[in-house]
Every structure is written in structure tokens, then in C-alpha cells.
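Can anyone check this?
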Amino acid sequence: MTLMLSSCIDQATPDATPAPHAAPAKPARSGATPIPQDSFQRDSQSIVGISYPAGLERHPGLAHVLVNYAHAQRAALANALALNPDPPLPYELTLRFTTAADSPRLYAVRADGELYTGAASRPRKAAFIWLSASNRLLKPDELIVDPAGWVVVQRFIHESKVTAGATVGGTLPPLVPLLDSAGRISAVDVLLNEGGVLVPASLLRPYAAPEYAGWFVSDTAEAGAAVGTH
């Protein structure tokens, strides 16, 4: 399988199509980024439910990224309704952001979404790794810079029992780091449409960028309990 080292993090920008039933934004102080709020809207056309993790006030830049991602998902729903404005059953969008890792070094959020537009319900997963010190997203190919590391990831995907959605458009699926009690990366969670695969950090450490290699657990036995599917 050809590996593409483009970002596994879905950073979709909002579509120009107006988002349906968007709640009015609360006014913010000049220069401040509003902290996103959970929302739920329902009418005869659609049902939309979006929830955000607590603590985003510490990372306003990431909050802005997550809101943009949510707007893009709303736009996908709006586009489907534009093609069929009177569906027999309401179309549905659910999107749940949850904290996957929280340390002074990094803060990671995963997004689990599902979009129903009549024919079938389609899972949508994404991951966002935020570097607190530099106030920016970290792309997976910045974290694992050696292509051999992605071979390891692909091997774990294809050797696992979870194969559905192993790739998305030929690219690797979203992934998030999991931390131990000391704040080190103990495993990388590869998000698939049906479950996920945990790759031990010790196996990926040799392929990490030099500035991040020390963030990974180095002992295979130490991280072995994290290996597998879930």
C-alpha cells in the first residue's frame, strides 16, 4: 500500500454554504476567541448535536480549529439538505469532541462524528494534536518523520481484527497520542471507522522527529499493555 505522509489530522475549513440552525454566537470581548458551547437543534429537516470538551479556554487557538471543523460538518449536512430539502426522516449530525491527552507539552482532542443523510449513516473521525508551547497543531508527519514508522502503523492496522476504514482516500486515518501518568506518550491510538488500533510508543520512538523522540516511552514492556484493538 502506498503511504501518503500528508496530515492525518482533519483540518477541514468551513464550506461557504450556511450552516443550518446555527446557534447565535455570543458576543466576545475584542481580540478574544469565544469558547465553543455544546449545542442541540432539532426540527422537521434535521437533528444536530455537538459537544466540546472542558478546558478549551486554555487553548483558544485550538478552540477556533474545532469550531471550524464543526462548521465544515454542518456544511456537509446543509449541502445534503439542499439536494433534498424535505427528507422523509430528519437528517442527523452528531459530533463529539473529547480530550484524548492533556499535558504541559501537548493537548490532544479526538472528534467522533456521524452523518445520516437518508441512505446510510457515515462515521467521521478526526484528531487534533495541539502544542501548548508553540500554540499550533502538530501534524502526524511532523511527529513521525521516518516513513518506516508509518509502515509500522499500517502493519498494526492490517494485522488487527479492525479493518473497516483502515484508510481514508489512500491516506492514514487520524491518530492521537495516549499518555502515561508521567505525561509520556505510551501508545498512539489509530482511529478507524469501527473501533481503533493502539500502537506502542516504544515501536514508534525510533522513527520520531528528534525533538519529540524523548516524549515517547522507550521500554517495549512498559508500553506493551497498550497494544491491540479497542
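Reply from J.R.: I decoded it. The first strand starts at residue 39 and ends at 42.
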